[in-house]
């Protein structure tokens, strides 16, 4: 059995990756483990801002037609998954969220980290909750199986692992300028996919690693 690490460098989640891993989890030849690497698209982003207003001004240059077209396009992409995105709510700097994800990944393992990330982005994209707010993070931690008292302690101590995560963000940013980036480690070679892909693309990459592991 070959153990392959799937490194997911992200500042947004790619739901297709989770589906692809689920499809390949029964492979008798390769075991795939998801590992999260942090990346900030906007490292200087303020702690809180109105999502609609910020995107309209910063991403679409105050062009409401362009913003509506973008939102329609994104919903079309997610429609096959039964997901309708919510573009309302607040957004803000994601450093705090990355800090909690990295801590849980290190202390609780990949399964808890994966559930935590899934919970965070469901709350942000579907429920319009702030991605780094304390209550958002505590809820997602508890949903991932973390005890409430422990979740509140880690979320509340904003200096815990903050220095290490800032350094990791700097290191990752030296090699990555767009996300998501997915690297599937293989016995002969690694397979890298950049940008959001469909399930079949991730499955193909993992099938390549399985084939070359024999």
UniProtKB/TrEMBL annotation:
This is Nucleolar protein 13. Gene3D superfamilies: Glutaredoxin (3.40.30.10). The gene is NOP13_2. GO terms for molecular function: oxidoreductase activity. Signal peptide: none annotated. The lineage of its organism: Eukaryota, Fungi, Dikarya, Ascomycota, Pezizomycotina. It holds the Pfam family DSBA. It comes from Conoideocrella luteorostrata. Residues 5-206 form the DSBA-like thioredoxin domain.
